[in-house]
């Protein structure tokens, strides 16, 4: 009886450890996807943003 309880407890501990590792992997994947989405968005808008900032800076320096 004690051996069965011990084995059950060990399996519970192992499952808890595996779930914590799984959570870290999921957070890592989410972070990777968010960073990739930001990179794609900024890359696609990069030229337009550069032009817009140059226009704004030009208007600020000339006073228009």
UniProtKB/TrEMBL annotation:
Keyword terms: Membrane, Transmembrane, Transmembrane helix
Q: Which domain of life is it from?
A: Bacteria
Q: What is this protein called?
A: Flp/fap pilin component
Chain segments annotated as transmembrane: 24-42
Q: Which InterPro entries match?
A: Flp_Fap
What's the source species for this entry? Lucifera butyrica
């Amino acid at each position: 009886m004690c051996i069965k309880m011990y084995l059950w407890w060990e399996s519970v501990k192992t499952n808890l450890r595996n779930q914590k590792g799984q959570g870290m992997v999921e957070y890592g994947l989410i972070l990777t996807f968010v960073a990739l989405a930001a990179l794609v968005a900024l890359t696609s808008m990069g030229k337009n943003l550069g032009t817009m900032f140059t226009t704004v800076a030009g208007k600020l320096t000339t006073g228009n």
